[in-house]
# Entry
Amino acid sequence: MNSSLLFLIPLLPLIGFIINGIGFRHVPKSLAGVIGSAASLGAFAISILAWNAFEGQPQVVKLFDWISIGQLTIPFAFQIDQLSLLMLMVVTGVGSLIHIYSMGYMHHDEGFGKFFAFLNLFLFFMLLLVMGSNYVIMFIGWEGVGLCSYLLIGFWNKVTNYNNAARKAFIMNRIGDLGFLLGIFMIIQTFGSVEYLEVFAKAANGSFSINDTVIVTITALLFVGAMGKSAQIPLYTWLPDAMAGPTPVSALIHAATMVTAGIYMVIRSNVLYSLAPATLGVVGGIGLLTAVVAASIGLYQNDIKKVLAYSTVSQLGYMFLALGVGAYTSAMFHVMTHAFFKALLFLGAGSVIHAMSDEQDIRNMGGLRKHLPVTFWTFFVATLAISGIFPLSGFFSKDEILAHVFEHNQIMWGIGLFTSMMTAFYMFRLLFVTFFGEFRGTHDQKHHLHESPATMTIPLIILAVLSAAGGLLNIPHVLGGGESLAHFMAPLFELSKQVNPDLFEGHLEHSTEYILMGVSVGAAVLSILFAYNLFMGKKVVPAADKDVTGFPKVLQNKYYVDEFYEAVFVNPMRKLSDLLYSFGEFLIDLVVNGTGRLVQFLSGRLRLLQTGETGFYVFAMVLGILVILAWNLLLK
Amino acid sequence: MNYLPSDYLPILIQLGLALAFIVGTMLVTHSIGPKRNSKLKDEAFECGIESQGDARTPISIKYFLVAILFVLFDVEVIFMYPWAVNFIKLGSDGFIEMILFMGLLLAGFYYIIRKGVLEWEK
Amino acid sequence: MLPIVLLSILGLVVLFLGFQKSKNLLLPATLLVLAIVLVANFLHWNDMPSLYFKNMLFENKFTMAFSGIVIFSAFLIVALTRGFVDDESAQPAEYYTLMLFSLVGAVMMIGFENLIMLFVGIEILSVSMFILTGSDKKNLRSNEAALKYFLMGAFATGIMLFGMALLYGATGSFNLTAIKGYVMANNAPSAMLYVGLLMLLIGMLFKVSAAPFHFWTPDVYDGAPTIFTTYMSTIVKTAGFAAIYRLLSGSFSGIYSFWWMTLAVITVLTLLAGNITAVYQTSFKRMMAYSSISHAGYLLLSLTALTNQSQSAIVFYSLAYSIATISAFGVLMLVAKETGVHSYENAERFEAFNGLGKKNPLLAFVLTVSMLSLAGIPLTAGFWGKFFVFSSAADRGLTWMLVIAILMSTVGIYYYFKAIIAAYMREGELSAIKVSPFYRLILIATTIITLVFGLMPDFLKGLV
# Structure
């Protein structure tokens, strides 16, 4: 394939953005959507070409010399290797589906053209992020997707809350970026280059020992950036708020692509991270903590999108957990399967919201299965997948992560397993409450219920197929598969293996693996049954938390068990959930917003210095001069 | 001859005494003097004539303009003296530079006249 | 040194053009002068560095680049003046001439080789600015600003002159190279040199509004007519930084260990004072005044580092900052004029931009790009400015300052985005503003420059 074609991949969405962005008042609605989707599909098509032409060696395609300061030269170049190809497929593939879906979903919106312009711009930056051949281009994309996320969260800008959510997301991301930027500067200082290939070659040439302070610092700083972008504790609270944006945005940006940028970055820098097991420990710890905390919060959310948002945070935690134990391939695998089923879940939720005339509270839904069959079945597939039921995609990726964690540390594995139980529980709670039982909405809503148009259902079906079959990519040996993804990605980690072989050692017995799989599927099934019992059997509607009569027999039979669950499991869990929720929403907000407040407060104080009196200004100046002179002449 | 810092001590003492005397006198007069205020006493004294209005009346800007222009052109003449003294030494270069200088000055003068700054009644 | 000569002579020509009945010729004439000077400035680009006027002035690529920036900025600003034709009490010829003359001062500051030239340059520039600040004669705030600026400026000049005198006393010369020779030859320079350097620096830091000598800035920038605020916040700053850079790198790099800590503390203070106080402002114009203080802080960061990257970093930063500031103020002037019809006190607040995006998409876009650039968001020139400045600091190993600077740039986003939010996300009754084609062209040009430099920061290097 002609390598100059590669530049078309990010260029097409940019062109789409320019057409829709500049002329969004003039481009007719029907055309705007087509242009946006065509740009995305075009990028996808070229990505496939690039995939086919790939020969196994990283290929750097330089466009021009971009910046040169001193000895440092930063070219504007793209790097095509296994990792960027995988990300390309996910970003453009899922991105295209979501573009098509948006044509239906945003049909009634007056900012239709603007929406597609932003979506294309996002795609452009995301592609820069994954294709760039150095950290600076990655940073440009990184900031760019943040900006687009800001624009799209605040897309319905009439509501002040949405704007605040947008600003919160942006500023929290910037805090993370602070770390990232510092990391880049340290890389420049240490390696004298920001090109991936050069940096990694220099890092692996033996001059750095394991846990070298410089490397640990660099990786820690980079991880701070990842924490912001991928919503890890303590910088995760922006993601649930970000659900204020239109649902396709939540699916594309806040589930499938942008939030996985942090994971991409760690995998990209795997050589550095392998050199710094200390940082990896922190990564894994934070990932695990985030996974548990977010999953437990998800248990008691009633907003359909909020449940999915916390679930996303939790799954991202999972991925970082995988990175923390050095299972880079597994993390990438989970990024991909997660992109499929989480995008599907969000789009399904969007379809529900669309049908319910913008209702998002699951307490007012119920029984939608009959009215929205396609949405229901696809949603069901995704729910099974995320819960890790064999043989859907989520089973393979999650199981692989858990297996690696088990090798590493059994306690962490236990917590991980517990998290996956919670995941299965709240996802099925969502499914049951939304799609089963009686309809609890208003009469008008009931009247209005309809299955979404084909532009929306077709992407759902495609994603459902992917969610179901995505696991085929990397079937483990133990199940007779070839671990094709692992083989494909292996060259990426050769340097890592060279610098820190210990990290990749350890192998599980086949029998252990079977047991682990059994345990995890069993645990998931158990919590599904529990959810079934609670929400189908007892017909509990989360709002009232009271028993609904109608199946008294079932109630009575299960009463003590339920009480037992209530006392031992649910209540403490709820307490914990509440506690963690308040911890998350208040304490962390306190710290983050508190910083903002502090700045505001200081600003108010400092402002008072500005009295407007020349006398005072001169006084301040004289004081300044005296201090400077005294300090320099007397104290030094 | 070398002076040590201690040799300056008498001066320091004298300085301190002088300051103390001034401050002391001011404080003492302030505290022991009687204070009687009356309207008549606080009034400004203007040769026995009743004072009228504010002393800070605006004066026509033209006074300042003329004054500042006088200073400006008067000061410029100062540059002529050293030039005249070194006339031969500076030679033709100096002459050209002086012409330039005078040219600029005259340009300013022309500007003033065209602006009508020197017209008193307008 | 052609620019100085040309500016002086052609400035006089413009002044006398003012005696013409019709004032319509003044704007094109001034623009023509600036265009000529801009070309003249780059005539000797490929020549070797050289000294002029009996070793008084110095010229190399660095000084030419800086002169180019100030002249180009002046061109853009003059283009935005619209001839002052709608204001009866205005004196356009005098304003233009003062701007041209002040550029003479700026060019002198940039290329000084002798401290006397530095002083003369600063004074020419400052005195012009005092007058222009007070040019809105009927506005009390403008008068107050001018007087304040003058008083404070005179004070700072005194300090600076004192510093120069002490330097002369210590080294026996006003010449930068001679001073450098003295500094290099003496391992332990006298206290007189130290005090002289500090005093001189303080005087110059005042001019670029570094904390704690920045207090005049908000009042003066706020009170002055917006067009001259633009002029002050771009040209005076740029020239001031060029002068400080030349002073420090030209003479005092040998005693870096002596002055760097002082400058570092001042830098941090400036960053904090500028960024944090800006958060509270309700007036866009006042916010821009504080933002100019904060940008002084970033530039000072690069000067504190004083590596061989610093030079190109401050050139790029000044250019990016100037262009973005000019387009932001350009939009403000249009909007303030429109809003001022309804409510005078709202004219320069953030609220003035409410609903700008609906009716005036171009202006809103221009404003957004300039805000993004000032905030340092990637793909704008401002990002690379910050990037270069930060990387020069990283090169010197000033990590703690870097952390503060990046944190403060996060604070910056908060207040710059206030303008963007007002423009796009708030409702307002702003109607479509009529923008003359030329004005529009200038705004589009500044925006394109910002974006082009954002995409290709090496563009400048590619040109030469």
About this structure: The mean pLDDT of chain C is 89. Residues 2-463 of chain C form one domain. Strands of chain C lie at 50-52, 57-59. Chain C touches chain A through 64 residues (CB under 8 Å).
